[in-house]
Amino acid sequence: MKYVILLLSSLSMLAQTLPTKELSYEEFLGYVKKFHPRAKMAQLQLSEAQASLMAARGAFDPKIEVDFSQKQFMGKEYYGLLNSSFKIPTWYGIEVKAGFDNNDGVFLNPENTMPQQGLYSFGISVPMGQGLWINQRMADLQKAKAQLNLSRAQQTLDAIDVLYDASLAYFEWKKSDQEVRLYTQYVQNATVRYGAIKTLIIQGDKPGIDSIEAGINVRNRKLNLSEAQLKRTKAKLELANFLWLDNLIPMELQDDIVPEANLENTIQNTLGTTEILTANIDIEQHPKIAALNQKRSLLDIDRKLKANMLLPKADVGYQYLSEDRYRNTPFENNYKLGMNVNFPLFLRKERGNLKLAKLKVQDVQWEISLERVQLSNKIKGQQAAVKTMEEQKNMAKQLTQDYQTMLRAEERLFGLGESSFFILNMRENNLVSAQITAIQLENSYFQSNAKLYQTTAQTQTK
Question: For position 457, what pLDDT does the model report?
């Protein structure tokens, strides 16, 4: 009967006060997405690209120019020069210009002589070689648009990386918390069992050596608990790195906050990996491929600009001139015509730059081809990893239940006096090892889902 009392005492679980505040995984990711500095930094990169695009568009803004100079000496006006213009840059390098000039003075240069009321002009400047189909301002605008798309893709990748790192921290916190709860339970069991065995030894029902073994068991359990508590403290501090509030205020995690208990049932819904496991992922829509495509577009714009430099530089300009009272004067009688031609003989610099630009485009094209294959294989491998980890997790649960059954059977034998404390302790150690393995496999299952989410770069996280 004493053995039965000992058995019942060792099996009794001391009441534990469980915290009621739970930080769910979905809620945690919501804080990270909204407030984490790395997520905000990714948004800044997009804002920078938008500002660069606005600056590039500024090259096509109309311009008003006024140039006035005057010289007075010894009561004489040597000259007064007024040149004003309104320019409108267009897409294909063509520039439309309207102007008004008015010059006078005693010592005015003859070429600046014009009617007393001034001279109006309206004309156009056209590049006939370099700059017609592509020029620097066109290239800057095209590159700014490509850079904006590149920043959008990079922002998605950066945000997903932040969520992945945060997820690993959350899973580690949950794993260490489970280990602390497990060892706390076994410390309590070992303490109760140690006290019961000492009572039996005093009564002469058990040998004294059993108290030594029971005491060793208590100290081992306490050592395991202390190590688990240290791991949980570190994991909690690591998790706090991802918890922020608005205005970059770090959030402190209270001691009574616990991880989500049913994470196993909700993680795939939170990350959206249920559909990913069976879906055919379109690699071309992956942000990595999109980013590389935009990188190729940037290099291709440079290639076109370098190719354009092989053409001769020939600018032709025509301006119709008119006095205010002679606005209907025929075009062929009043105009200013200009031409500027420039062409290097050997074009070694231009041909070298073009070759380098082509090599860069070819390099990123090979990188895209390689990335397509690697991403496809990574996704397939990670899909298989999630399924395998789920199977191992379920097997570990079944193994834990089997060890639990063995321990209960051994406890019944011990209660009947047909087993020893050594065997009972061995059974319990096997159960503890199986439970720790189950916790680790569950953690690996969580990590495999997060890795699948990161690899496929899905954005449906709530």
Answer: 85
